[in-house]
Amino acid sequence: MFPKHLIMSACNYDDNVYISLHVKTIFRNPKVVKPYVVPSPEYCNLPAAAIQASSDMIVVVDSNAPAAHVAQHKWQPNTPDGHGTPFLFQRGKAASGSGGGPLRRMFKGPTGTGEEWQYPQALAFGVSGIRSQAIISITCDQEIITGGHADNSIKVISSDGAVTLETAHAHCAPVTCVGLSSDSNYLVSGSRDTTILLWRFHKELPSNSSFISESSTGPGTPSSRNNSSSHLIEKNRRRRIEGPIQVLQGHQSEILSCCVSSDLGIVVSCSETSDVLFHSIRTGRLFRRLDGVVAHSVCLSSEGVIMTWNELQHTLSTFTLNGVLIAKTELSISTSISCMETSHDGRNALIGINPLQNGRANGGNLQSSKETAIDIRSESEETHESNIINVPTPAICFLDLHTLEVFHVLKLKEGQDITALALNKDNTNLLVSTSDKNLIIFTDPTLSLKVVDQMLKLGW
């Protein structure tokens, strides 16, 4: 359990403390950032396909999505634990009957200590050939949205028990990627049916809330029919997922990646055989096409910079909302990007770089990748020779979004391929899941002491 006085002080951040943290993000002085491996990682639900870190909780979704195990760990960032770690961490509790209950345990037989610590598992039937990382999004309220279901649906599951809260149907084929806006107000889903659907996402309303006034109208009357219609409308309004409110078209093949921004009012998406497309949230219309730009993953910053990763050509590029190329860089042909994340201020980015395994990376073929990359490099050596990212892998690179220059590298050990990474809200902590089932938290250890000192000065 956390010491009571530390919980109280860590939970009661005021605006002054938040501002102090905001100006001391890991991007400000990354050289002072140090790694801290969370103890007993076998109990942390790893390796993860998705992570979310709030001010008091870490949600970890493992790589079995959509039938994923879900863990809630308690933590307090930037709060020393008294044993040399600059944060408090308490692993989540495994639910009795999780992972399928007595029936599953009856067939599993005896297990080791790590396997016995099973977290709740979502009930789902998935389809093959879809990356787990692409079909998971976690909302601001720690609810988990999953795609990749055999019934072509999108599901919302709880993080405290992996219970299915809601199911939405609209696609004609399995959902291959999902994306949430930073405020969790909009959801986009891409599918093998080549369309992207835009949904509005709502917070859960109290179960006893009712907006329909009952009237004593007889059956069959117009008022009764109107009442029935109103009930249906209100029922749909109370759902978490409303819509789809727009159907976004223009792709010719399976959607690989999609993202959405409420502030910018756009949806960015890519597919393997189509250009990168920009759609309007308000009208649903295609307003920009990046002609000739093929991407396997896209990312959108709060400042409107679009970052694209081409797995076959091993190129990372950034574009403006007007479709103008800002910067372009290449990676070594023996590496691949597994994760991309932008900073809160939209100026920087993090990329997780792994070595290619068995000739494959995210479903790509090494031989074709080599041929493509060699051809491109021979054409661009004269002009872009210095703009190549070549770092020991696995590693996390800090990039300037406007130049794609690497200004810092966090090196991981061999065998610690990166499966997921996440920044907390104030960007003072970076959480990384690795393939060898470790959870590593990168942070500035001196920041926790400064924060505690500032809170004491403020009277906490």
Structural key phrases:
460 residues, BEACH_Domain, Methylamine Dehydrogenase, Chain H, WD40/YVTN_repeat-like_dom_sf, NBCH_WD40
Topology (SSEs and partners):
Layout: H1 4-11, H2 15-22, E1 34-37, E2 48-53, E3 57-62, E4 70-76, E5 88-90, H3 101-108, H4 113-116, E6 136-138, E7 144-146, E8 153-157, E9 164-169, E10 175-180, E11 186-191, E12 196-201, H5 222-237, E13 241-248, E14 255-261, E15 266-271, E16 276-280, E17 286-290, E18 297-300, E19 306-310, E20 315-319, E21 325-331, E22 335-342, E23 348-355, E24 360-361, E25 364-365, H6 366-384, E26 388-389, E27 395-400, E28 406-411, E29 418-423, E30 429-434, E31 439-443, H7 445-457
Parallel strand pairs: 21-26
Antiparallel strand pairs: 1-31, 2-3, 3-4, 4-5, 6-7, 7-8, 8-9, 10-11, 11-12, 12-13, 14-15, 15-16, 16-17, 18-19, 19-20, 20-21, 22-23, 23-27, 24-25, 27-28, 29-30, 30-31
Commentary on this structure:
With 460 residues, this protein is of the alpha+beta class. Among the domains are: 1-55 and 68-96 and 442-460, no CATH class; 122-204 and 223-294, Methylamine Dehydrogenase, Chain H (7 Propeller), CATH 2.130.10. Helix content is 17%, strand content 36%. The protein has 7 helices and 31 strands. It has helices at residues 4-11, 15-22, 101-108, 113-116, 222-237, 366-384, 445-457, and strands at residues 34-37, 48-53, 57-62, 70-76, 88-90, 136-138, 144-146, 153-157, 164-169, 175-180, 186-191, 196-201, 241-248, 255-261, 266-271, 276-280, 286-290, 297-300, 306-310, 315-319, 325-331, 335-342, 348-355, 360-361, 364-365, 388-389, 395-400, 406-411, 418-423, 429-434, 439-443. The strands form 8 sheets. It has a 5-stranded mixed beta sheet with strand order 18-19-20-21-26, with helices on one face. A 4-stranded antiparallel beta sheet has the order 1-31-30-29, with no helix packed on it. The longest helix has 19 residues, at 366-384. The two termini are 20 Å apart. 45% of the residues are buried. Residues 4-19, 98-113, 206-225 and 362-386 have low confidence and may be disordered.
